[in-house]
Amino acid sequence: MTDQELVKAIRSKQPAEVERAVTFLYRYKGYVTSFVRSDTQRDLLLFDQAFCDDLFQEVIVAFLENVWRGMFTLQDNVDVKTYLWKISRLRYFRFRESELRRIQRDSHYFVLTDDNPPEADAAIIDREQERVFKWAMSRLDRDGQEFIRMYHYEKRTHREIGEILGISEVAAKQRYYRYRLQLAELLKAYELPG
């Protein structure tokens, strides 16, 4: 499949064509996330294979949205693989910077207190985080809430979710990551992990 055929299939918005294009894009996964393995702070940040899988899913969703919104056009000097790599690198370094700030903030907090935060403080923090999370979940549409609930609370796989909803595993993954990104954007204002 050429880059032109790939973009044409995505722009068609036909589920079978889009799924075929996304399946083809998975050939680029190793290349698109290759720089994560060379990051010296990868172990500190706990960026494992699951993290790379999540990062690649976010890149695919962003690429699909950019194509559908007309924000991506093929150019002679940039191919799809390079474009995906650039999106991946940008998202990675944003997330990396955020995680490093969080680690620094957390370590500063624990240096100032005993080994553990006081129980009353921890309870207040837990309640506030739960309140904010419920608020953010309520801002998702019904499908988004259902996907997040099935994946995180019922611990279902993308394949199981797809079977329940009558869609492919790839489509289930795409929808889940789209909803997870929406939830993360809502939680970002409160600096809670998405």
From TrEMBL:
<keyword id="KW-0804">Transcription</keyword>
<dbReference type="InterPro" id="IPR014284">
    <property type="entry name" value="RNA_pol_sigma-70_dom"/>
</dbReference>
<dbReference type="Pfam" id="PF04545">
    <property type="entry name" value="Sigma70_r4"/>
</dbReference>
<keyword id="KW-0238">DNA-binding</keyword>
<dbReference type="GO" id="GO:0003677">
    <property type="term" value="F:DNA binding"/>
</dbReference>
<dbReference type="InterPro" id="IPR007630">
    <property type="entry name" value="RNA_pol_sigma70_r4"/>
</dbReference>
<protein>
    <recommendedName>
        <fullName>RNA polymerase sigma-70 region 4 domain-containing protein</fullName>
    </recommendedName>
</protein>
<keyword id="KW-0731">Sigma factor</keyword>
<keyword id="KW-0805">Transcription regulation</keyword>
<dbReference type="InterPro" id="IPR013325">
    <property type="entry name" value="RNA_pol_sigma_r2"/>
</dbReference>
<dbReference type="GO" id="GO:0016987">
    <property type="term" value="F:sigma factor activity"/>
</dbReference>
<dbReference type="GO" id="GO:0006352">
    <property type="term" value="P:DNA-templated transcription initiation"/>
</dbReference>
<comment type="similarity">
    <text>Belongs to the sigma-70 factor family. ECF subfamily.</text>
</comment>
<feature type="domain" description="RNA polymerase sigma-70 region 4">
    <location>
        <begin position="136"/>
        <end position="176"/>
    </location>
</feature>
<dbReference type="InterPro" id="IPR039425">
    <property type="entry name" value="RNA_pol_sigma-70-like"/>
</dbReference>
<dbReference type="InterPro" id="IPR036388">
    <property type="entry name" value="WH-like_DNA-bd_sf"/>
</dbReference>
<dbReference type="InterPro" id="IPR013324">
    <property type="entry name" value="RNA_pol_sigma_r3/r4-like"/>
</dbReference>
